[in-house]
């Protein structure tokens, strides 16, 4: 996607008059940070996160090697991302409650669709939303998102609350990542040639945001299951 394509797409889908931010930072071909795109929706997103996590509580999952993750997670949508002694996977059922994950709120899905389109990925229909909650010190080490069945669909990642230092690596783990500050309302979209790039989050600084206190919340939208 060229810069011209990007601004054309943004002009169509995020009316500058309605959009709180608007600047876009191209990370590389297929990857972009849409600055401040979710600022206006943030209170509604946080309210919906509250609803979802009442039904499917945030929890710190364990890796296959037995490490407890520092980020607390939950999910909504048809498929939820899980990590436990048997590894990473998606499941329709929350093992903590024994019930299906809560449905994806429309305010989530519509934001994810618009952000994907603004980044040049038309017709994104996420079926999975991972909710990540970072307290001070919580981090996510460099990884690829590769448990999905469909790599044609992009990843849409919304940042809320305390700013984070996002690690943006290459297609190999050995490539040194660049660090990009993500503020409240920023949305990162990556797909196409960048779909499997390594990424992560540095330990969260002890900071304060008026809407979330000392927390950072992240919504990661994905197409986990193949379209029928
Ligand atoms: C993720 O990689 O699942 C989350 C990234 C983030 O918290 O921004
Ligand atoms: Fe990820």
Characterise the protein shown here.
The protein is built from three helices and 13 strands; from the N terminus they run H-E-E-H-E-E-E-H-E-E-E-E-E-E-E-E. It has a single domain (3-222), classed as Alpha-ketoglutarate-dependent dioxygenase AlkB-like (Jelly Rolls, Sandwich), CATH 2.60.120.590. A hairpin with a 2-residue loop joins strand 4 (80-84) and strand 5 (87-91). The strands form three sheets. Strands 1-2-11-8-13-6-3 form a seven-stranded antiparallel sheet, with helices on one face. By secondary structure, it is α+β, with helices and mostly antiparallel strands. The protein starts with a helix and ends in a 6-residue tail after the last strand. The chain binds succinic acid and fe (ii) ion. Residues 130, 132, 140, 157, 159, 166, 199, 201, 218, 220 line the site of succinic acid (SIN).
Q: Please tally the β strands and state the result.
A: 13
- Radius of gyration from the CA trace? 16 Å
Q: What is the strand content?
A: 25-35%
**What does the overall shape look like?**
globular
Low-confidence stretches: 1-20
Q: Could you say which structural class the secondary elements and strand pairing correspond to?
A: alpha+beta
CATH third-level topology = Jelly Rolls
For the biggest β-sheet, the strand order reads 1-2-11-8-13-6-3
Quick one: biggest sheet? 7 strands, antiparallel
Bound molecules: succinic acid, fe (ii) ion
**Which H/E pattern describes the elements?**
HEEHEEEHEEEEEEEE
DSSP helical segment count: 3
The number of distinct structural domains comes to 1
Specify the helix fraction band: 10-25%
């Amino acid at each position: 996607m060229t810069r011209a394509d990007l601004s054309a797409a943004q002009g169509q889908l995020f009316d500058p008059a309605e959009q709180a931010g608007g600047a876009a930072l191209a990370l590389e071909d297929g990857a972009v940070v849409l600055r401040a795109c979710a600022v206006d929706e943030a209170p509604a997103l946080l309210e919906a996160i509250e609803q979802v996590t009442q039904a499917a509580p945030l929890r710190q999952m364990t890796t296959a090697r037995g490490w407890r993750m520092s980020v607390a997670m939950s999910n909504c949508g048809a498929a939820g991302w899980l990590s436990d002694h048997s590894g990473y996977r998606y499941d329709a059922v929350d093992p903590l409650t024994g019930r299906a994950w809560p449905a994806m709120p429309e305010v989530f899905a519509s934001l994810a669709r618009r952000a994907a389109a603004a980044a040049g990925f038309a017709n994104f229909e996420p079926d999975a939303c991972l909710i990540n909650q970072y307290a001070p010190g919580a981090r996510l080490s460099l990884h690829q998102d590769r448990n999905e069945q469909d790599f044609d669909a992009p990843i849409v990642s919304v940042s809320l609350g305390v700013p984070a230092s996002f690690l943006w690596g290459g297609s190999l783990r050995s490539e040194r990542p660049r660090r990009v500050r993500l503020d409240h309302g920023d949305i990162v979209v990556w797909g196409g040639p960048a779909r499997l790039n390594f990424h992560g989050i540095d330990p969260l600084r002890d900071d304060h945001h008026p809407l979330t206190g000392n927390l950072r919340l992240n919504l990661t939208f994905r197409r986990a299951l193949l379209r029928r």
